[in-house]
Amino acid sequence: MKVLVTGGAGYIGSTTAKALEEAGHTPVILDSLLSGPQVFVRDRAFYEGDIADRELLRRIVADHPDLDATIHMAARIVVPESVEKPYLYYRDNVAKSLELFDELNALGKTRVLFSSSASLYATKDDFEVTEEDPLDPPSPYARTKRMMEQVLQDMAAATDLDAIILRYFNPIGSDPDLESGIYAKEPSHVLGQLVMAARGQKDAFTITGVDHPTRDGTGIRDYIHVWDLAKAHVRAIERFDDVIAAVDASSSVINVGTGEGVTVRELVSSFERVFGKEVPIAEAPPRPGDAVGAFANVDKSRELLQWQTELSLDDAIASALAWGERRQEILGYE
């Protein structure tokens, strides 16, 4: 199959492109390079531009009339920034996606796999969430993901589009060959911050929020190895029509996680075990937009995608550390 990957120069996008290739498929990359580095594109078919550029989308389809599906990953993703600059997030994540979906439908490219987020879920007492549980997105970033889901579901109901919406939990780690990974000079996510503290690039790792209603007061997350997440996309593309037929609807939402919750303190303990040394720790209040967290009920992904995670938390931590050693070689900076 040939698959258009928007945001394919990014962390998850480039890893997914590699997983597609390893499964015998051909990714075509569309990325503005607003944040993702071009080096992650490697030698894949690549179009630099905006997802709302209809003329560019028409050119891509003219060049690749055999496109079978689109994986839409392009988005702004930094939660604190979304609180500070909501306009940019609603413009780029919502308004531009609307143009993309409409043009894909007009071009007859009607299979859309959308990258959503588990940050949409309302907090539950036991923290395990199913796809039917209540939603309460806590930040402009999370609200853009919810809006994009609603836009896509409404358009799928009214047009020829079919949509599979994957709600990601917390991807960590690198691809198996260390060709791509977290690229931000100072990653905002927890594992990137841990790696920086472990390598002496920060004075300490800061736990943001220690009074949450969890077993140790720190936030709880479902940390999925990015390579497992990438392979979930491959399964969703390969089983796309089967999934739509199984749910007897034009769209379906599927959690993608490990099914296990890990607190921040537990993540730190696992990290120190893999790293072999203690990491200096500081504590601070939650950041704007931070959520207590959740972990995935994965029954639906097992049934519909015939997929489950294969790699452990320790595997993901080890690959993140290995990527930390290789980042400068690939990206030109620490």
Rg, nearest Å: 19 Å
Secondary structure: helix percent? 40-55%
Number of continuous helical runs: 11
Uncertain residue ranges:
none
Overall structural class, as computed from helix and strand content, comes to alpha/beta
CATH class categorisation of the largest domain = Alpha Beta
Report on the biggest sheet: 7 strands, parallel
**General shape:** globular
Q: What percentage of the residues does DSSP assign to strands (E)?
A: 15-25%
Order of helices and strands: EHEEHEHHEEHEEHEEEHHEEHEEHH
List keywords for this structure.
2 domains; two-stranded parallel ribbon; single chain; 19% strand; alpha/beta; 41% helix; UDP-galactose 4-epimerase, domain 1; globular
Describe the model.
The protein is α/β, with parallel strands linked by helices and 334 residues long. Helices cover 41% and strands 19% of the residues. The protein has two domains: 2-172 and 222-256, 3-Layer(aba) Sandwich (Rossmann fold), CATH 3.40.50; 190-221 and 259-294 and 312-331, UDP-galactose 4-epimerase, domain 1 (Alpha-Beta Complex). Strand 1 (2-6), helix 1 and strand 2 (26-31) form a beta-alpha-beta unit. Helix 4 (86-106) runs parallel beside helix 5 (140-158) and helix 6 runs parallel beside helix 9 (264-275). The longest helix is centred in the first third of the chain and has 21 residues, at 86-106.
